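Trying the structure run again after the queue cleared.
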Amino acid sequence: MKQFLDFEKPLAELQAKIGELRDFSTDNVDFTGDIKKLEKKAEKLRKEIFSNLTRWQRTQLARHAERPYTLDYIEYIFTDFFEVHGDRNFRDDPALVCGFARLDGQPCCVIGHQKGRNTKEKVHRNFGMPNPEGYRKALRVMQMAEQFALPIFTFVDTPGAFPGIGAEERGQAEAIARNLREMAVLKVPVVVTVTGEGGSGGALAIAVGNRVMMMEYSVYAVISPEGCAAILWNDGGKGPQAAEALKLTAQDVDSLKCVIDDVIPEPLGGAHCDGKAAAATVKSYLKKHLQELEKLSPEELIEQRYQRFREMTRLEE
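Done. Tokens:
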């Protein structure tokens, strides 16, 4: 059964009525006309709701439990996926999926955060929050891709890197910093897509790319709204207020001009309403940017990546 967010309650009530009429429809009693009227009303209401979303509501959409995750995009977009496990140092990290696949027959590398659908999966995937071994695994796979001259596609969707004691003991900050440094000098095209939450360094550790895109209802910020509220007002419940201050939506980030290259449109209601259609749109953007990047030499790719991140910081006197 589809999950509705708080601001979608009027829509949920309409959908429930439509469902009831369908259940009661028989050969003798036909509610087709009433169902069509309610469906038109629901469509109009959906457009009204999604044309006036607040930043906090967009954050809720980015976190929607039914939103497509990395493994879903791999299934819909790529073929022949072969997953690679472990960092050859400590263990595997299920919060980061890494491996090799084909995009319309072209070999490539795919890396992305993976959350869980149910409680068991969420615990197994650590709610999409990687440990240092996850980032070291990702770097190992990216360096393999560079060795074989394969383009790299990353999918970002994490609240942030795991802040546990064990993660800190094993060098969480060092693992993230190393990824930033090493990704900056990769000699192959790197295309990044923020599909849900882009949280802090945990997201940036696989997001140093030649092209960076955001899904229409994704968010990208240095900290979560709740974390920001806890620091500023000592009250994590003021997340909605913090979300407005952070300006973390795809539209906000796109207005900065130098941080992302494209905002990928989603089906009305969000990517979770039609995962296959959302993935088809993502695929078209991945192919477009890859075709542009393939024209650049390894040296030009590094320079382009360097310049795009330098452009994000300007000094004004």
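Residues 32-50 form the longest helix (19 residues). Worth checking whether this holds up in the mutant runs.
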